[in-house]
Amino acid sequence: MILMPKNVWGYYRQYKLYCTIYYLGVLLDLAVQSFIALSFKFLLDNAIIPKDQKVMVLVLALLLSGVVLSKVGYAFRCYLYAKMMAGIMCKIRNQLFDKMQRLSLKYYASSRPGDTLSYFSNDLSSIEYMVNMAVPAGVKAFLSIVVNTVIIFNLDWKMASISLLGLLLCALGPYFLNSRTSAANDLMKNTQAELLSSVEENLNAQQVVKSFSLQNTVKASFQRESAQLAQLTQKAFFLNDIMEITPLGIIELFNVIIICMGAFFAFNDWITPGTLVAFNSLFVGLSTAVGSFTRILPVLMGSSSSMKRIQGFQNEEAEVKNSPDATEIQGFANRIELLEVSFGYTDDNICLNKVSLQIPKGAAVAIVGPSGSGKSSIINLIMRFYDPKAGSVEIDGHDLRRVTMESLHRLIGIVLQENFLFNDTIKENLKIAEPGARDEDIVYAAEAAEIHKHIMELPNAYDTMVGERGGQLSGGQRQRIALARALVCKPSILILDEATSALDPKTERAINETLKRITKKVTLINITHRLDNIKDYDLIYVMERGHVAESGTHQELMAKQGLYADLCNKQTGFRVGDDLNYAEIEANRLSRINLFKQLENEMLEELTELFISEYYAQGKTIITKGEQGDRFYVIARGKVEIVINMEDGSEKIVNVLEDGDYFGEISLLKEVLRTATVRARTPCLLLSLKRRQFERVVSKTPDIKIQLEQEMDKRLIQLSTGG
Hints:
By secondary structure, this protein is of the alpha+beta class. The chain has 3 domains: 6-314, ABC transporter type 1, transmembrane domain (ABC transporter transmembrane region fold), CATH 1.20.1560; 335-560, Rossmann fold (3-Layer(aba) Sandwich), CATH 3.40.50; 574-720, Sandwich (Jelly Rolls), CATH 2.60.120. It contains 22 helices and 20 strands. The strands form 5 sheets. A 6-stranded mixed β-sheet has the order 6-7-8-3-9-10, sandwiched between helices. Helix 5 packs antiparallel against helix 9 (273-314) and helix 13 crosses helix 15 (475-488). The longest helix has 53 residues, at 215-267. The relative contact order is 0.07.
């Protein structure tokens, strides 16, 4: 079967015995069916016309026993094939899922989730139908064509030659349509995957869609994509149907030709009546086999497209994998080093540029800096989620590219800002880091993370289900379970990547106290923008635009009055409620904002009383592009992202602001439309000041108001010219 996707045969080879038994049974079926057709010749020519009862009884007995044996064998064959088909599909699913686990993060960052999901939905369904229906029907039809062709040539070569001509014409039709039909099916499958990606993206973006009233926009975009898919589907289905009906039409024509020719031969006694009836019956069986074969061609075409897509996914090369000469690292003895490391997630986006730093064993080290400065990239390299473009990352002198990832990850425990919990029990979530962990190990880790007592208060204790993404637990509980999970494997290195940035101050203080107590025996690497938590760390690296701008202890860095001191000063001067329910800003902090520098202390004190606390949950829109601006915001706690809409309708994050940053200052002096959308990246507590209240305060000193307006005019000119 030339049109069969080549990769399928590899799956069948694993079931050689089952295949042998199955297709021996198919041959038995074909033998019985052929004998039924030939029985007309024996009955007419050798029994009924010569009146030979013994021959008639023998033929009828053989017919009956053959049919019974064939059907019993068919039932057993169905059982074997069902078992074989289930095994093949299980293997394909397992291979796909295994490939998902082995691909690097770069693949997921650059591909659409809908494409990957479509392998498990549309493509697997297509292949399952092919394996379950098309392959057995196709092989049986092919064997039937071969067997019946041999028999009819033995009956009469002249009529058989005409039949063979019909078969050749049947084959030529699909041959000429094959490439066009295959291309149409490929394009249809890819467009289906794109549409699935759009649906999945829309599901995840419903809050944004509702916030910006984008329902009509996304609906119009979806309708365009759906209309395109409809056109491609129409073309593919039409070509599939043409492939199916062309051979059938040819067969029907030649069937009539054979009847006419056979009747003429029998009338002239060139063949016996039994031969005519048997030949016609065999040709009908041959026609049916060809019809079956042509009907499965569209299925094979569609499945071939699916198989090519899956094979393409299987052939994806993991960017990061164990090298052939990789060795296991047994422990952590001295230091982690980045040596002249350059790195970017894409070729034209460099996140780290010739960065060198050391993290000594047993030290508490923080890596800080503005958003986008390269902090998280360092963690991604230490975890070997990515490899550097240049330079090397080493542990105790071992280049991580020469170390097995499994042994590296055994040394490291990691706690992220958003720690994913599987929809399973607390115990199973804790055992992820160490599948062989004993119950006492799990309890020890939970006690160290100070979550054991709370777990025991739950109705099912450690067997409590955490819900989808840990939704049955509070943010603090999820974070403590994530911390316990990192501790279960007793790591030598503990990495915190903004691990407490999404928590309220009270919970954050509690977890930081826990961290101080449990990290005395491990090397701690903390990526954070909350600088108040790292004042007692042994070493702080300050990143700026992919470089190490400063390094030292908190006291040393504050004495330098450089970038670190600026970041610290930006975050001071706020009082934040333990539950993120209110915030206050001090007058001296307000005076460090450019807009308020010229104001007297009395005015500043008055303005601090006018700021209002506003809480925004993660993902909530704070400002919408195009709306009238009437207030100024200061971030007391949390992160926000500045978003602009691109021409193609997509969004682009152009900046991320965090504790102490501010936005919307133009709105205090000018009636302007918002130029971008601002959205809460983490739970945020903001302080807002309305223009009307600001004007009431500054209008008491007209000269200052004029100066502020002039300064704001300069700022607007700079913005309009890209300055």
